[in-house]
Amino acid sequence: MSRSIDIKLRVNGEDVGATVPARLNLVDFLREELCLTGSHVGCEHGVCGACTLTVDGDTVRGCLMLATQANGKEVTTIEGLADSGQSTALQAAFTKRNALQCGFCTPGMLASALGYVNAGGAADRDAIRQHISGNYCRCTGYQSIVDAICDVIKETRT
Amino acid sequence: MKAPDFDYLRPSSLDVALAMLIEHDGEAMPLAGGQSLMPMMNFRVAAPEALIDLADLTELRGITVDTDTVRIGAMTRYAELMSDPTVQAHIPLIGMALPHIAHDAVRNRGTIGGSLALADPAAEMPALMLALDASIEVAGPDGTRMIKADDFFLGMFETALDDELITAIHVPVATPAQRFGFHELTQRHGDYALAGVAIAKTDDSYCAAFFGVADRATRVPELEAALTRQDNIKTVLTHLDQIDFTDDLKANHTTRQRLAGVALTRALKGMTQ
């Protein structure tokens, strides 16, 4: 029983060890302890999607997972997705299509979009809208975000 | 906000987890996927002294089929249910509902047992259990027992659990004679429903469980009887008066009753063939 726990995990390909308070969210750990500020903190109750990142290859809400629950897991943030080139095509398409204004939702939006593309999702606007419905964009850039995701799917599968 | 502080416990077996639950005498909460409990803690609606993380209890995982029942381990995640061919083939109603339950990132962590134990009145899973006549297998200090879904949900966030943990869910395998319907109305795809309904029709007999409308997932026997008699839809909808509809910021009870009627009408039109 402890309110402070030792954890070991891999973050963006690097081994990390830390002692964390039990109550610390994964996204706060990444931002405040590891200075990986690409994952954003919006609503803190799993609704806005700004903190979306991947754990063992699955997209998750960084605000709805404790840092201690990531013990032994492989975490990839937008920094890791960008550095490894996984999100390069999506980032280029977002730029080309003006799929961001303020950019607050963009890291989470890219992580969600990548989940859709990697799962073999079709260039179907309704299906894409349904998939990214868990990510809020308050600049209301959805139209161009859907355009960008469609572009990437069409480009990579032709 | 951030969650208040708590002790984090990670038992390695079901017996150890149950002992921890007893030891904390109502002050500890089990942590399954955390997709509802974590928001409640962040809002400080829930402030348990300790969290008992069930992640290492491998005995709570896995999906198996007997001759006429699918047994789903309580810690099975929504994403696993979605990709499981057994669930899709034998429990089509769950297959219909899953895409409406939250979003990809939440379905990758959220569990069936967690949803049932929390008993959020707007969640889909409790209503699905009612419609499917499922049984909930629970383990406690005195051993294991089965609770019918109809006897499990006692009120808003209230269940029949008594110092117990859900270990599995038993759902009857769909028969060729059964037909299913599902519809929910939300402000945004994947959000909690303002009103929704799950329907199972066996031969000519209907079971319809509403969610998001009252303090718990709700069946209305008179409404089901009217559906079975093939009454006119207007007559069927009058029986919605039996429900004590919720008033909140998103919709008052009048709106909710109307939305429940719309959901029912659409679910009936979209029944599997």
Q: Any overview of this molecule?
A:
The complex is a heterodimer of chains A (158) and B (273). Chain A is of the alpha+beta class and 158 residues long. Chain A folds into 2 domains: 78 residues, Roll (Ubiquitin-like (UB roll)), CATH 3.10.20.30; 70 residues, DNA polymerase, domain 1. The N and C termini of chain A lie far apart (55 Å). Chain A has 6 helices and 5 strands. In chain A, strand 1 and strand 2 form a beta hairpin. Helices cover 37% and strands 17% of the residues of chain A. The model of chain B has no long low-confidence stretch (mean pLDDT 97). Chain B has 273 residues and is of the alpha+beta class.
Radius of gyration of chain B in whole Å, from Cα? Answer: 18 Å
The number of E-state strands of chain B comes to: 14
Instruction: Give the CATH topology of the largest domain in chain B.
Output: Uridine Diphospho-n-acetylenolpyruvylglucosamine Reductase, domain 3
Which spans of chain A of ≥5 residues are poorly predicted at pLDDT below 50?
none
For the record, the CATH class of the largest domain in chain B is Alpha Beta
Straight-line N-to-C gap of chain B:
47 Å
Proportion in β-strands of chain A:
15-25%
Chain-wise SSE layout:
The complex is a heterodimer of chains A (158) and B (273).
Chain A: E1 4-11, E2 14-21, H1 26-33, E3 52-55, E4 58-61, E5 74-76, H2 78-83, H3 88-96, H4 106-118, H5 125-131, H6 142-156
Parallel strand pairs in A: 1-5
Antiparallel strand pairs in A: 1-2, 3-4, 3-5
Helix pairs in contact in A: 3-6
Chain B: E1 7-9, H1 14-23, E2 28-31, H2 37-42, E3 50-53, E4 63-65, E5 69-73, H3 78-83, H4 85-90, H5 92-97, H6 104-107, H7 112-118, H8 124-131, E6 135-140, E7 143-148, H9 149-152, E8 153-155, E9 158-159, E10 165-172, E11 178-185, E12 195-202, E13 205-211, E14 218-219, H10 221-228, H11 233-238, H12 253-269
Parallel strand pairs in B: 1-3, 2-3
Antiparallel strand pairs in B: 4-5, 5-10, 6-7, 6-10, 8-9, 11-12, 12-13, 13-14
